[in-house]
Amino acid sequence: MEMKKVIIRNETEQDYRAVEELHRRAFWNLSAPGCNEHYLAHILRMHKDFIPELDLVCEQDGIVVANVMYSKSWLTDEQENKKEIITFGPVSVDPSYQRTGIGKKMLTASFEKAIRLGYKAIVIYGNPDNYVARGFKSCKKYNVCLEGNVFPAAMLVKELVPGFFDGTRYFYHESSAFELNEQEAELFDRTFPYREKQIQPSQEEFYIHSHSVIQ
Fold first, then answer.
1. Of 123, 137, 40, whose CA–CA distance to 76 is shortest?
2. Helical H runs in the chain?
3. Any idea what DSSP says for residue 178?
């Protein structure tokens, strides 16, 4: 696809439904039959941990073709000292525009803006194949883990400020916004045109990544 001029800007209220439809198209049947990412986008905007300044869309020819949303998250050390960081998700590029460089441009813009806002690190859950080229590394390399000293293979870390991590053992805590109500998500999905839920190979790939840990 020919790369045309892309506008990266903050999401507006007029974009809400288009963004939700975008996430639904991008994630449908990808990691599970159906998806909940469009519902996450819907409720995240109203959550106390949502960061509206980092809610960015990519617009091409007047059409929203990508979106990334950020929320606050936290690290605690073994003395229970707390540091605020950020995470992103959902993040989507319309399937018709994937592998055109739009996602890279959008994430780069979001990193630059996050630095200007004073944030120092990002922790996400994602497929390493998609994010190591964007500067993310294994959580193990930064000594960031979950309670119980668990290092998920899919938990990735990016320093926005070099040297922010100094070897201290940190435990990652994501926002309660990600604690989705499955019944409410299903009801929300019914407000969209019907799409068939299917089982496909990418779901097994997601299962393997999401259940793997680094020793």
1. 123
2. 16-27, 37-44, 102-116, 128-131, 182-189, 201-211
3. G
Q: Which residue type occupies 51?
A: I
Residue position matching structure tokens 């949303």: 69
Altogether, the residues listed in the chain come to a count of: 215
CATH superfamily of 7-211: Gcn5-related N-acetyltransferase (GNAT) (3.40.630.30)
Q: Measured between alpha carbons, how far apart are the two ends of the chain, in Å?
A: 42
**Which stretch of DSSP H or E encloses residue 71?**
strand 63-76
* Beta strands 121-125; 137-138: pairing state: unpaired
Contact at 8 Å (CB) between 61 and 74? no
How many alpha carbons fall within 13 Å on the CB side of residue 184?
A: 8
Residue 122 contacts residue 71 (beta carbons within 8 Å): no
Q: What is the pTM of this model?
A: 0.95
pLDDT tens sequence across 73-130: 999 999 999 999 999 999 999 999 999 999 999 999 999 999 999 999 999 999 999 9
